[in-house]
Each structure stands twice: as structure tokens, then as C-alpha cells.
Amino acid sequence: MTALVLDIVTTAAILFAVASGLLIILGVLKIVNFAHGGFLTIGGYSGLVVTQLGLNAWLAYPAAVVAGIVMGAVVERFVIRPLYDRPLDAILATWGLGIIIGQLITIVFGREIQFVQTPITGATSVFGETYSLYRLFLILAAAAVAGGIAALLNATRLGLEARAVIMNEPLARGLGINSGHVRFVTFCIGAGLASLAGALITPLSSVDPNMGVPWLVNAFMLVLVSSVSLASLAIAALTLGGAQVLVSTFISPVIGGLTIVVLAALLLRIRPAGFGHG
Amino acid sequence: MTNRARSNAMFSKLRTGAVIFALALVPVLGAQAQEVIKIGIPTGLSGANSVVAPSVVQSAELAVDEINAAGGILGKKVALEVADDGSGAAGAQKAADSLIFQKKVNALISMQTSAARNGMLPVVSRGKVPYIYTSLYEGRSCNKYLYADGAVPEQMVGPIVDHFMDEYKAKTFFLVGSDYAFGRGMLAFTKAYIEKKGGKVVGDEYQPMDATDWTAIISKMRSANPDAVIFSTAGGAPNVTLQKQYKAAGMKAPVGNLSVDEGTAKTMAADADGVFISASFLTNIDTSANKKFMSAMKAKFGDKLLTPNDLSVPEYDAVYLYKAAVEKAKTTTAEPVIAALAEVSFDGPRGKVQMNAQRHAPLTMYLGQVQADGSVKIVKSFPNVSPGEQCPKL
Amino acid sequence: MADLTTTPATLPRRAFSGRLVPAGSIAGLCIVAVVAGPYFLDSYTVNILVRSFLYAATALTVDILWGYAGILTFGQAAFFGIGAYAAGITFTYMDFSPQTAVLALLAGLAVSAVVAWITGWISFFHRASPLYVAIVTLALPIILVQVLYSGGTFTGSSSGLVGYNTFDLSVEAWFTICGIGLVVLTTAAWFFVNSDFGRLLIAIRENEQRCTYLGINAPRVKILLMVVMAMIASVAGYAYAGYTVVVAPEIGSFVFGTELVMWVALGGRGTLIGPVLGTIAIDVISAYLSGNLPYVWKLIIGSIFVLVIVALPQGIVPVLKTGLRRLWSAATRRDAAPCVAVPALIEAPEGRRAGTGSDAPALNVADLACSYGSLKVLEGVAFKALGSELLGIIGPNGAGKTTLMRCLSDGYERTGGTVAVFGHAIARTPPQGVVGLGIGRSFQTTSLFETLTVAESLRLARYRLDGTRMLSHAPTLALPDSARRVITATGLDRQLAIECRHLSHGMKRALELAMVLALEPSVLLLDEPTAGLTKPERTLIGSILVDLVQREGLCTLIIEHDLDFVREISTRIIVLHQGKVLLDGSVAEVVGSELVRTIYAGGAHQELAP
Questions:
Q1: What are the chain C neighbours of B84 within 8 Å (beta carbons)?
Q2: Nearest CA in chain A to C129
Q3: Tell me, what's the ipTM?
Q4: Which of residues 107-166 of B touch C (CB under 8 A)?
Q5: Which of C163, C157, C188 is nearest to C95 (CA)?
Q6: Domain spanning C361-608: which CATH class is it, in words?
Q7: B266 and B355 together in one domain
């Protein structure tokens, strides 16, 4: 029982961390960033580079954030910016970007599956159950990501402007907010967050050039049902992620893999606002 | 291949006529062009098998270098054509199409996933080239053009299960596999074997080949609390992630792994500490043939050497077996080479290998245990284990 | 053009056969090419091309859905996979025979049709966002693959099924069969998208909402289209399974779904030939290059794809085509503009108006309310309107006039109260259903279909009553007398072949009115039909309206700012103020009312001052 609850909470934490970057980009830029999987992969390989250079495993996280932001800046400038008025084309172009990122990584690092070192190893006892320490750490990490975004949105000028753009972009522009600048910075931060999430998930499994793709669709679904709100995203990750763990445990892991996609699609059909208000 | 409408027959005959005409030209043109014997290696450079595939290529490269240095086969040089099969059926078909029909290889010799092998077989039948499959596998894959020199469940399962029952007094087992021919086939055999020996299987679970999140299954294992667990996943990522997550979850039951090779074990090191494996090749085999092989590999690849293992060394053997068969048949034409393959043998790092048991090879098997540094200690050996009934109709 | 009206019937047929001859000869050449192909190409290329043909057929379905109907779909891979697995499973477990071959084909068609119908039902509903269908079709292949995985040994899970018996055909025979199939399919698709129905798809893509107000059940059209395209993809998958003797989850996967979209985008969406050539070229080049430079090749494709999406959203083929056409016109000094067929106008049969002979009032509105959150736009609105009444609705800006129109024509708009048309409550009926009850609505802002011609727009309005042709253009266009009168009076009948975007503002308003009248409504809702028109134009429209009401007994509601105009034509006036009915009475009562003067004096409109 304890293990099940921990599975649900840690799964939700992972999903939240993976989806948050996508969420803020969708919120501010109103485009679905299918290169998200590519940014996750960049994060994973940042971890690999840290491992290969023999550095402290904790350095993987800042390295991933920096790599993500740099990539994000380049991508925003040359690909995203011309596509603001064509949201469906933006899906396609960012998917193409994902392919480019995957192939560049293949050329540099090879296509085989590789492994990164884990900063925290071993298991600990929680209420009498032995549980993976790293998975427990991921709860903290997700909370830190959530706190970081919330602080950014609520305590900085950029956050204020971003919120204004999320709510009503024409009005925000009318008030003299440079929405182009807000978009640029937001995209960079979103890419950085995605990359960080990639570095966070790799110690659980492995890195390969296509590692981001399986995460993309679930993250995308979670973001859509949470209608651009961090709190709703947390709720969505917990309920849909929880449903996934329950189905995987009690029915079949294969069907479990479908849970988020199917539930989210049906939820959107019945209630287009998803977990959000309105 | 049953029905054929009459008009179709007419139609096919016309086409066939044209093809035969075209094919008749090929040897004439080919005689001048083909000064080398080409061996195709479709293998999983990407996807699940990508962890071991490069070591397979290295094995083949050494064999080909040695053969060419000694004058080639029938006086012709040997060349390799490597293609990525993506570890899956569709990719394997594309790879085989390209190797057989575009690169015109004389034979396919390769370690692949069972999905890739099965996907390729129709193309091989159409292309009519000898195909030596060099991976350990679930057994009973039978095709006119196919030989296998790797281990099958009859050879692999016994050593591990017997050891758990004898040394750990294990009664209950939990089986985890990848959901494809290999995982299912291996564990079906294992389950039957355990039950025959009086043990009990308290759970068997499968995940798709590319799955890397084992949380739910580990949680089931935890509640089933078995005396021992046996894994049979796709090689590479699923294997490593399962082993890592099992260890990280703090599970204590001893693990037998039917799909991990020594090379992968080495990359996992501490995560695989204590795991039992069953293999026809381990680097520590104490024979002069193996020592010669190991030092040749080190000399050729130096720092870049990937640990030779039970998935890569059969590739080395198979290249030599093909050489012997071609020399015996005195041609590279498929039919005589296929007939000769059962009759020739090769004394290599795994000892004497001859694929004379219904297209499969009796092998000397070893029970190994992974150490904390990733090396594998030989616990026991079982000479000349028969592969049992594999392809009685061939 | 001037003598169109005298010899109209001969023109369309000539135009049609004019299309038939070049299309037929191009298709014939292609068929000769695929029959002769195996004698010239090496066996590897022939082998690869069979697969490319099947992929191209599937890409073609993506193009029709995305390029023509505007439905971005990643789901065609799933239907390809369903067709393939239907064959794989049937042949594995029931062996191959002519009977099982037919059975497998039918099973694939049936399953993909049902799955497509469900997908369509989930994706297309009144007010669904176009992004939503992309999501659902994205989920579809993912779900299919998981279902295949969970099929365990039955579906072969990750390994798929292989080595079953199948059609005993040579590679060359497959090449010819698949090649001919692709040519026939592409030709049929070409006729389909250039038919009246093809225009309907474009109209839905350009302005789905407007289509629903023309009584077109856009969700149903899209669902049907998706079902048919799914069945075509399933046949391609079936052939793939028969040819390759392997079915594996990859062929129904999300990645294949995105590849199809990429091929279509690169070739040129909405061109048919672009996606077909694009798919074949990319697949064949991949087969040759991927062996030697696998990652670099994929990198190149990915980069070109991003570049094309960003800089050349129409794809590569249209760019080449424009270039060729320019060369052609330069060489021949002739304009290669396509010939546009113009249908002959004929009279529509009478007596199909809803509500004829009903005793109930044409329109009965009770306690109508509409609010957005806490903002109440309409509250407690109640009135009745009868046939032969021309009801003017006036009120200052923000009084809720347009919202009222919306609530009367779309069952989802109001938040309270009831609306009944000839005694039938509109309940929660989407606009296309409300049109069926007899309501026709025109819009305040001209919302026509830019790239459609006048004739095509009018035909769109007749879709509900007359249906449409799937593969050709109808030679005639039946219109009710009222619509014909608007057209002839304004001179639109001489501009039937003109694209709407080239019309003058007055003509656009007239077309808008003619389209609504072509619906043969019993209740007409007109939102500022004369806004921006010149005085003579306004008088013309006004007299047509009065005539309509008197001669045909139409119940007409008209929103107007120009009080003089309202006074001239109305039989009754309703004044809306702050979302409530302030006054409902005869023209004289309202114009003479002190209350109305006070409200209007507060701000809005000069026109009221007599």
C-alpha cells in the first residue's frame, strides 16, 4: 500500500517535471512545442557528458538547464518566431526540429543506448517499505520546479508580463508589454525546464537519441487537460498519473501506458476546459 | 501460398520469364564484378540491441581480417556489409532488402532480435541466401535457409533454475520478460521447467520491447515475495533499466538473467552485482583457443574493444563455419552451402561448434555470476549440452 | 461571358470533358509506366517502389484530409496498420485462401471504418478546436500499438506476425498491381477534390462556422470523409501485409503517422500529386541512402522539412508548378488560367419550406437569457413572430441584438429560456440543425468563402436540400425564385464564375443574402444586411425584402441601425435595451415613443432623429 502511494506520487512528480516546460510555452506562446522531446533528450545527454567527463553527478542538472536554454534561444529565433500565426504548422516544424536534434545527437554520441551515473543510489525504508531513494528525490525536484516557476511568475516583472500575455495578449501589447521579448524568454525557460526534466529522468533508465518521444505525448495530454495552470497540471499529473500506476499495477502495464492518453482525450471531449476552470 | 487465379498465373509466367532472362545475365556480369565474397550483417545498431550490436560487428571484423590474412575463401577476399535493422521486424526487412537485392551479399550472418529475425525470414526465402543466426534465442525458428549457432532454452534454463533450487532452496519464482518471441518463448520454457522440477511460478509479467519503466512490475514482485526471480527481456535498454530499478527498489531475491551478456553486465557493474547468467561464452573460459581469441581482439581493437560476449562470439564462430561450408561445397551457391553447413565444424573460443542438431549446435554451457566490478565469475560448467528437438522437419 | 444566360447548359459539359481528356491521358501514361517499369528497373528498385506506392496511397489520404479539408491527422498510420494486421492475423490463424483473403480485406475495412467513425465522433463536434483532432489522431496510433502489444502471442506483440501464407505473386506483379492502384486512386482523388463535394470540403476548411449556418452538418461530413480515407489507408495496409509477409507494430505507429504528414508537407499539401511524388521520391532515396549515410540522410530530411514549413508552407511541388506554368506562358504567350465551369441556373421545386401549414407561430421566444460569466447580455427576452411579418430589431450598441440572433440560430448559445420554430423547440441543436427547422441567418460581417466562386457559394447553400456530386460538377444549379431575383436584380448572375474575394462590397452583401435565401428558410434572420451599401443598393435590397415577405409569407427579423430604412420596410419593431425588450409594437408606436427617444438621446445613434 505504502509502495503504491509512493509509486503514484513519484510518477506524478516525474510527469509534472516533464510537462511543466511544455505548459509555460503553450501558455505564453500558444503553440504546442513538439521539440519538447528533443529538449528532454538534450537534458539526458547533458547528464551523459557530465558522466563521461567524470564530473560530480549533481552537475548534470545545471548543465542540462544551460544547454536547454541555449538551444531554446536558437530555436525560438529561427523557427518559432515566423510561425506564431500558424499554430498547426508550428506543431509540424517543432516535430521536425525534434528529428534534427535526435539526428545531431546520434551523429555526436552514437545511436546506442548509454547510461548516466545517479547522484543518489540505493533504497531507504519508508513506513516499513524499502523504496528507491532517487524516486523520492524526484518528488523534491518536482516541488522545486513548481516553486521556481511560481516564484518567477508571481515575483518578477517578467512573470507579471507573462501572466498578462497568457490572459489577454492584445491587451498586454496595448499596455506596452513587449510580447516578443516575453515569448523569447519564456521559450528559453521552457526549453531549459524540459532539458532539466530530461536530466532528472535519465538516471532511472538510460539515454538514447529518441528517449524524449515516448514522454512527449503524455506530457502534451497533461498540459492540454490542465488548461495552462500549474495547479491544474499538478492535479492532472496526480490523477492521470495515479490512474496509470493503478491500471499498470492491477490490470496490465501495457494498458497502463495508454491510461493518460485515453483518459485525457475523453476528458477533453466531455469537458474542453479539462481540469482548469471555465 | 495456395491459390493462384488462372489469369494471375499467365501474368506471373510472363513476369517470371522476364526475371529469369534478367537473372541469366547476372552471373555473366557478376563473374567479372564479384571478386569478393560479401557477408551481410543486419543488426540492431539502433533500438533495443544497440548495446551489444557493436561488439557483434567487432567479432565479425576480426574473423574477416583473419580469414583474409590467410588467403580468403576459395581465393576470394571476404567483405562485410553492415546494416542497421533497428532491432525490429520492419527495419530488418528494409536492411535485408538492401543487403540481398542491392548489395547482393552471399550470406547473412547476424545477431538480431527475434522480431528482426522473424521479419527477415520472408525476405531471405525470396532472396535465397544462407542465413546464420548467431544470437541465443527462444528456439524453434526453422527455415530452409536458416542455421543457428547460439544457445536455446534447453541449454540455458537448466543451469540457473537448478542452481537456485539447490543452493538457495528456492521454491517460488517470479518471471519478467519483454513481450516478444524471445521473452515469451524463454519464459514459457522456464515456467514448464520450474514446474517439472517441483517449483512454483508465482507471477510472470511482460512489457513491450521498448519499455523502460518497470515500476508497476517491481511493485507486483514485491507483493508476491518470490524466492528467486528470472528475467528474460530484450537485450540492452529494457534489461539494464529492469536490473537498475530492481536494485534501486531494494529487492533482495536472487536474480537469474537469461538475456544479459557479459558486455552489458560490465556496463551495469554494481547494478548487476550477484546476478546469475547462463552462457556458452564467458571471457574467463580457460582454453588456449579462447586466450588466442581474446588477445587477437585486444590487439585489433585496443582501447575501443567492447567486451566479447555470448551474443558476439557466436558471430565470430559463424563466419568461420560459413568459410568451412563454402570450402566444402566449393561454391557460394546457396543450396550446396546450406547442405555443407551441417557437416562442418569450427574449434573456436567456445570450443568445438557444429550445427548438426537440426540446424542448431550442441554447446558447452557455463553458469556465471556477475561481480561488483562487472566481471563474470564462472560458477559451474556443463559440457556438450544438446539443444533438444528444434527443427525435426528440416 | 455576357451571353452566359443564353447558352448556359452547353458550357459545363464542355468544361467537364475538357478536364477528362488531359486527366485521362496523364493517368494512361502513368499506367503504361507502371506496367513497363519492371522491365527497365532493377529488382531492388522495383521492390522498394512497391512499398513506396502503398505509402504514397496512404499519404494521399492524409493530403485529402489535411490539404483539402483542413484536418491535420497523424492517424492514417493506424488505419494502415489495422488493414495490415487484419491480413496478418487472418492469414496466420485461418491460412490463406481466396475466401480468407476477401474476409481479411473486409475485416480491415470494417474495423478501420468503425475506429474512424469513433475517432471522428470524438474529434468533430460543434465548436471543436482544429487542434483537438490533431491530438486525437495523434493518440490513435499510440493506442493501436499498445493494443497490439497487449495482444500477446495473438498479435505477436513487439515482434508482430511473420511468415504466413499470402498471395502467390511475383514482385513484378505486385509492382504493376500497386502501381495501377495508385494511379487509379490518384485520378479518382483528383476528380473528387475538383468536384462540387471537393468545394464543400474547402468551404469547411476555410470557414466551418459559416458552413454550419448554411445547414451543412460539417462534423458529419468530416466524419464521413475520415471513414472513407481510413478505409483507403486500410486497403493500402492490407496490400503491404500481403506483399511483405510481415506485420509489426512499427507500421501502425505514431512515427509512421508523422512521416506521412512530413511527406505530404514536403510534396505540397492540397496538391495530391505533390504528396504522391514526394512520398515516392523520399522513400526511394531513403532506401538507397539510408544504408550509407543513415543519420545524415534523416538530418537532411528533417532540416528540409523545417525549412519548408517555415518558408514554403505550400510545399515543393507547387513551387515547381508555378515555375513551369510561368515558363509555359512565357513560351506560348498564353495565359494558362484554368477554365472554370459555370452551371446553368434553374428553378428549384417549390414547397420544401419547413413549417408550411403549421398553426404555431413562426418564432416563439420565451424568457430567453444569455450570459457570459457574470455579464448578462440578454435577460427575459420574450416575443412571437408570425409569417409575413417583417420585424425590425433596433437598439443602441451593446443592447444584445447580434447576441439575440446568435441565440435564435444556435441551440448552444443561450443560457436560459426557450426558442421554438413553428412549435419545435430548438433545444440544444447546433446551427445546422436549426437551419433544418427553417431558420436562415445572415451575418453582420461579410463572411464569404474567399476562394470559392459565386456559383460555388450558392451551391454550398443548396447542399442541405440537393446534396452534391462526389466526382464531378453538376451542370445545373437549382435556386428558389427569391434567391434568383436577388441575383438577377444585382447583376450577380453575370459574375457566377468570379471568386468571392474579387466581388465589390455591395455584391458580397447581395451574395450573402442570396445564399441565405437559397436555404429556403421560413424564418429569416438578417443582421444589418445593408451595412455599408449605397443608397440605391439599399433601396433595392429593401424592396426585395418587402416583396419576399408579402409574396412568400416569410417571417423576417432584421437588425438595422438605419431607422429610416427600418421604418420603411418593417411591419413591427422591437427595441432592445441593455439585454431586455424595451418596447414591442407597431412602427408608429415605436417611432413615437418618448422612452425610445430618451434612450437614444443618451448616446448612440443619430439616425433615430426623425
A1: 294
A2: A272
A3: 0.89
A4: 113-115, 118-119, 121-122, 126
A5: C163
A6: alpha beta
A7: no
